[in-house]
Predict the structure.
Amino acid sequence: MSAPELSLAPARARGWRAWIGADAAARIAAGVAIFLVWEVSVRLWAPAFVARPSRIIAVMPATLADPALWHAAGATLGAVLQGLAIAIVLGTTIGLAIGRVPVMERFLQLYVSGLFAMPMVAILPLLTIYFGYTGQARLATVVFAAVFAIIINVSDGARAVPPEYTEVSRSFRGSGWSRLFDVVLPSSVPYLLAGLKLAAGRALIGAVIAEFYASIPGLGFYILYNTRTFKHSEAFVAVAMLAISGVLLELLLSKGTKKLLPWYRRDEARD
Amino acid sequence: MPRDHPRLSRYATYIVALAAGALLWQAVASQTNPAFLASFTATMGAIYDFIITGTLFRVLSSSLLVFFTGLGAAIVFGIGVGLLLARVRLLRVGLESYIMVVYATPMVALIPFIMSMMGFGFAPKALVVFLFAFFSILYNTIEGARSLKPEMLEVARSFRSGEWGVWRDVLIPYTLPYAMTGVRQGIGRGLVGLIAGEFFLSGTGIGLLIMQSERDFNVPALYGSILIITILGVLLMSIGRILENRFAAWRGLNR
């Protein structure tokens, strides 16, 4: 960590105040410019069916009133949340084992980092053989996409427990379980959250890819179906929902980390 | 743990872990329906076939061409635009939040649009790799730019450094290590984009090999092709990590 900065400049406002503050004009202007460039270039060079802001806004009320979209969103996000829950339990267990048990580390480390580096799309055909072209294949893809990021980060966390902590627990005759649940697990939580942030993004991608590949009803399939019938603007509403979900998950986790663990500053997950 | 040969002992551990994994795989496969799980030996046989028939070389060269075209463009534009945003504060403040939103959006969702606008062929697939990798690189470069202290620019200015001097001696050296973190992330994401493009746009390369094996119910070939892409992933990621560490040492951070 660098030494505290000595600066005469006023402290930067944070959060919403910064948004409303002096930089807001630049942000709004940039936003308007992006939409203008998009609108004009699509009008000039692209076929009529291509999504552009004015068409998206025009179809937005009808699309948002369509229950099919909400069903799709529920199915996709439900699978993502369910998969993340499974990945947290599985990933924390395996991660703690790798971080604390040397034999486990020696045997599993190689496989975990190998599977983490593997592009998760590649496993899809295999998962459809196991689970069929069903929602279960999507759930399995989500778990697969998410779990290794959690394992790697939790095992980092379990390894980084300061030895003094475990020694204190030992000298107070704490049992092995107490050491695990009262010392190792709590001090790995920040790493878990950092891994979870990474896993959430990967899970969302995994769900959409599985829907494309196996035609499972959800936001990804909604996008695929609508673009195939040249309803690009309708499909784009679903893309926006995915984007919002991605941003919300990200914000939720980073705010959650700050709120739950205000003493902890881990800037970056291992990814 | 023997301290005298840490590297040797690590490799020995890897070899033992791999051998144990292969044995376990073979044992489990012998008890399982071969329609679900190909044995280790059958998988190795499939990979051997890929090698001697020249399939492996053909498939990898086609995939890697797409990958490096997309990744190369993403590196050039990601770092280029990132540095520009680093220098022009107004532009950065204006665009930052939008870039953050796009960075958090799952890029796969754009594949159907790319397909219906650009159709099949080389360019749309390279574009998918580009899109997957670009925003990681851009996002991290901007992150680096944001942590560049104004004092550093002021010092450069007060020593009468010109615009080019500021770029060469302050901006680029300071931001590049962050950009390299982005490049490493971009390699991982770009690889996902490569396979997704090969699955959903037009079947070529390693993606087609995987899909074809599934359609033919050739389970050993399916496991073999997935193993090949995993090895490729590990290799590319280690290149990314080496690059990142090299530049991290320059930044003075050892992570």
Summary: The CA atoms of residues 47 and 230 of chain A lie 10 Å apart.
